[in-house]
Amino acid sequence: MTPLVFSFLTLFPELLEPFAREAIIGKACGRGLIDVNLVNMRDFAENKHLKVDDTPYGGGAGMVIRVDVAQRALHSLPPADEVILFTPAGQRFDQRVAEELAQKSHLVFLCGRYEGFDARVEGLVTRELSIGDFVMMGGEAAAACVLEAVSRLRPGVLGDEESHQADSFSSGLLDYPEYTRPLEWQGQAVPAVLTSGNHAAIRQWRRGEALRRTLERRPDLLNTAPLAPADSATLLNLGVHAEQLAHWGAPPPPAQRRRKKDTSSS
Questions:
Q1: Is 152 designated active site?
Q2: Is 133 annotated as a binding residue?
Q3: Residues 31, 130 share a domain
Q4: Which end of the chain is more exposed for a tag (fewer CB within 10 A), N or C?
Q5: Which residues are involved in binding S-adenosyl-L-methionine (predicted)?
Q6: One of 17, 161, 167, 216 is an active-site residue; which one?
Q7: 18, 88, 229, 254: which is the annotated catalytic residue?
Q8: What domain count does the chain have?
Q9: Structural domain boundaries, residue 221
């Protein structure tokens, strides 16, 4: 399989180097499953001081990265499926976007600093992304988040090919709680169903716990999560009203079977 190439245009490539070198990402790079290309925009400054920014027209604090520098850096790269700019105005990055990007072959990310890029850079990109409504000092940390989220979806990157499918957000719900040894710790015991060996009961318990956690902590996710009739029955048992289920577009719960009357004579 052709590796997915991540090209990061940054003023501080040393901030992203550890993510390309260590742990699962480093192993995936070593096996040729992904490729991380760190491009220092200062290499395209075309001045002896390697200056890539300038004062903003109209005045104001801070410095702005020049559009011509960004364009020269982009033109040094092979064609990309997406050229992505991190910006507060961008599309919110989530699991669905990660799954979409994991299908590509070459992704380019522009990591801003200072007061960001000249606004004309927006004409050079295909997509704008945001990882949340907060202010950071640069785009490198956001780039590391996207690198990890997208890379783990590529075939072969994770040891267990199905492990990411049960993760939070992949199923549309928060993940169920996990337990390991010791069996009992400070008066807290591992739920008995997990040691029962009954795999059907374990799957049912895990699904129920995922629904419970999502309802308690992120009920907004239930508005878009793919729910089955059995999930609707579980949510009803958790105290959700039928009107709320209808608002979420959840299917009706399974019809309860009526017990036949015993007509045999004594």
A1: yes
A2: yes
A3: yes
A4: C
A5: 112, 131-136
A6: 167
A7: 88
A8: 2
A9: 184-248
